[in-house]
Amino acid sequence: MDWCDDYGFSKTPSGRIRYGRRHGDGKKLVLVHGLAATMGSWHKLAERLPKGIDIYAIDLPGHGGSDAPREFTVSAQASILSAFIGKHVGGSFYLMGHSYGGWVSAYFASFPSLSPGLEGLILEDPSGLYSHLGEMDDGAKGEYISGLSSVLKGKRTGAGIRVVKRFLLEGFNGGHLTGELLARIAARTLILWGREDGRIPVAHAHEFRRGIPDSTLSIVDRARHTPHYTHPGIVARRVSSFMKG
């Protein structure tokens, strides 16, 4: 379902990034989807957020209408996100990322030079913790990638299996969210997590909460890995309340 009233492309050194916007006269919110999704995955949440919020969303590189990137690293995606925000959003803004998009968003927020104007950060079931991915041996990495690829096979996704594997392989090689990086996030942060998340266990939520200085944890009961899609009303209310300060 289409929720944007404006679409466009942003040129970056890594190719064109497709974005959408729902115009509003209030605070700005940038949305970053998860691996193999697109900006369209936010439609249920966007429809329930207050109309005054000025919403921007991107298709990550290699997803939806965006060009495949030259680099698949998390740091490269954070740099592209920074360039987009600087060019199209500007001023103060809130940033919400889901799953892999939460990883990119948290990494982005840990570098003040990338994220001037970041007023608040919302992480929904984010991946990327070093304690989860960084300590896997090669066998465990292979099983993880194969398992996710099997889940995505046959489904309509915003990125091909080869692209997904490239993102995962590059992610394993760097950009993990270490305790040092999390401690550098200065923005006020809301951590949302589905209590029944079987992909990234809710125990990881508490690690994010302990690692990010000014953070609050909010658990969504009966939700799995995508609360914004399965429980959009609850998530919209919590996001809206957080943005009110």
Briefly say what this structure is.
By secondary structure, the protein is α/β, with parallel strands linked by helices. The chain has 10 helices and 8 strands. It has a single domain, classed as Alpha/Beta hydrolase fold, catalytic domain (Rossmann fold).
Measured by DSSP, the beta-strand proportion falls in 15-25%
How helix-rich are the residues, as a percent range?
25-40%
**Morphology call:** globular
Number of strands: 8
In DSSP terms (H or I, runs of 4 or more residues), the helix count works out at 10
Report the uncertain regions: none
Q: Find the CATH topology.
A: Rossmann fold
Order of H and E elements: EEEHEHEHEHHHHEHEHH
Structural class: alpha/beta
For the residues shown, what is the average pLDDT?
A: 90
**For the CA atoms, what is the radius of gyration?**
16 Å
Query: Can you tell me the CATH superfamily?
Result: Alpha/Beta hydrolase fold, catalytic domain
Largest sheet: spatial strand order: 1-2-4-3-5-6-7-8
How far apart, in Å, are the first and last alpha carbons?
30 Å
How many domain regions? 1
